[in-house]
Design brief:
The protein is an alpha/beta fold. It has a domain of 95 residues: Nucleotidyltransferase, domain 5 (2-Layer Sandwich). The chain has 5 helices and 7 strands. The protein has a 5-stranded mixed sheet with strand order 5-4-3-6-7, covered by helices on one side. It has a two-stranded antiparallel ribbon with strand order 1-2. The longest helix is centred in the first third of the chain and has 18 residues.
Length: 172
Amino acid sequence: MHLSEGSRPSFYPRTLEEVSRRGRTDTGLQMAPMIDVIFLLLTFFVLTVRFRPSEAQVPLQLPRGDSSERFSIIEPLILEMTAGQEGVLIKIGTDKEILLPPEASPKEWTAAADAVEEICRRQQRRTDDPIELLCGEEVSWEAVVKMYDLLRVLGLNQIAFVVTEVNEEDAQ
């Protein structure tokens, strides 16, 4: 402190430049401590990490190649329709034959549907088992449609029409 002419102490008058020069300190980042902290964190995470097991080591129980449980192809139930003078002959697989007259009543068609249902039950068939409908050329379209409709009413939905190629020699 400096005493001036008056009784009051006065401070040196400082200019802004003097204050800014004196009060300046280095405020930059100190990199060495930061690098130390980074390496400590890296070391910590490397030493404490737990990797999950590889997917190749997931426990699975696969079926054996010699297993008695084999998948088999379900043989279709073949319905063969042929027409003659007596009417339409329907062969249901190798089990049953039904002869329907040319002007069969709904009761007779229902009996045919009951026979198909009984054979499906006896053979333990499901509604999605395949059925092949083999129709001769002489069978009327009306009879084929009625048989198809009866199969659909029974809930059988995998119905395929079997088409056979006719030789030109046989056709003449």
